[in-house]
Design a protein that fits this description.
Distance between the termini: 25 Å
Radius of gyration: 17 Å
Strand order of the largest sheet: 1-2-4-3-5-6-8-11
Helix content: 25-40%
Number of strands: 11
Oligomer: single chain
Number of helices: 4
Length: 240
C-alpha cells in the first residue's frame, strides 16, 4: 500500500472548452501500475470529475496501488429541454458519441504519457457509473465493432477491462454486433432499472442494451465477464 498519493490536474483536450483529468499516482517503488479511468455519471447533463465521493474513491484506489484518472467530458444534454421524443433520442446519440470521443482521447493521453505517470500500457481499464458506464462500454464496443471513432486510440490498443455500474451499449441502427472479442467486463446492474435498461430498450430503431442482454451475448460467444445483479433495485445501483 502506498503511504502517499499525489494528485495532478492536467488538460488532455480542447473541445468546446478545455477538458481536464485528475490523475492520482501512488508514491511507491512500482514502476508501472494498473490504470483505472473513471467516467462520472449524471445523465450526460450534470456531474463533475472532482465530486467528493469520486475523490474519496480515487484516493482509496490509488493508496492500494492503482493509478487513477477521473476525467472531464462534454455534457451534450446540459441545459437541454426536450421538444419531442425523436429529438431527444437524436440528442442522446450525439451526447454519447461526444463523451465516448472524449474518453478515447483521455485514454490516448494516458497511454502516451505512461512513463510519466508510472502506468502499464497493457493494463488500462475504463470504469464509470450511469452515463459514465455507458461511455466506458461504448468506447470498448466501438473498438470492437469497426467504428471509425476507435481510430482515436493508439494502434493495437485494447482496454484491459471495463467496469460498468448501471451502464448499457447504445446502438443507433440495427442491433449489437461485436466484430471482435471485447475487453473482460464487470457488469453491475439493478434488475428493476428503468432509466438505463437492465435488458434492452429500443425506440425508433435506436437501442440501449444493458447488463442482462450483454451478458447473454458474452456468454454465447464465451467471452470473459462477471455480473452482479441486484434483484429489485433500480438505477441507484449506479451510485451505491
Amino acid at each position: 500500500y502506498a503511504q502517499q498519493v499525489v494528485v495532478e490536474t492536467v488538460k488532455f483536450a480542447d473541445r468546446d472548452s478545455a477538458l481536464y483529468m485528475d490523475i492520482y499516482v501512488p508514491q511507491d517503488t512500482i514502476k508501472s501500475h494498473v490504470c483505472i479511468i473513471y467516467v462520472f455519471g449524471g445523465g450526460f447533463a450534470t456531474g463533475a470529475r472532482n465530486q467528493p465521493n469520486i475523490v474519496a474513491v480515487m484516493h482509496e484506489l490509488a493508496a492500494k496501488g492503482y493509478v487513477c484518472a477521473s476525467i472531464d467530458y462534454r455534457l451534450g444534454l446540459k441545459n437541454y429541454h426536450m421538444t419531442h421524443v425523436l429529438d431527444a433520442v437524436n440528442r442522446l446519440e450525439r451526447s454519447i458519441d461526444m463523451a465516448t470521443e472524449d474518453l478515447m482521447t483521455a485514454t490516448t493521453f494516458l497511454y502516451e504519457n505512461a512513463e510519466r505517470y508510472a502506468i502499464d500500457r497493457n493494463y488500462i481499464i475504463s470504469s464509470g457509473s450511469s452515463a459514465g458506464a455507458i461511455t466506458s462500454l461504448q468506447a470498448d464496443y466501438y473498438l470492437h465493432s469497426n467504428n471509425p471513432m476507435a481510430q482515436i486510440l493508439p494502434k493495437d490498443f485494447q482496454y484491459a477491462g471495463i467496469l460498468s455500474f448501471a451502464g448499457a451499449v447504445a446502438v443507433f441502427g440495427g442491433h449489437v454486433k461485436y466484430t471482435s472479442q471485447p475487453a473482460p467486463t464487470l457488469f453491475v446492474h439493478g434488475t428493476k432499472d428503468h432509466l438505463v435498461a437492465y435488458d434492452k430498450k429500443v425506440i425508433f430503431g435506436r437501442g440501449m442494451y444493458g447488463a442482462d442482454y450483454l451478458t447473454k451475448y458474452f456468454a454465447k460467444n464465451d467471452w470473459l465477464y462477471e455480473v452482479m445483479r441486484y434483484k429489485n433495485f433500480g438505477h441507484e445501483i449506479a451510485w451505491i
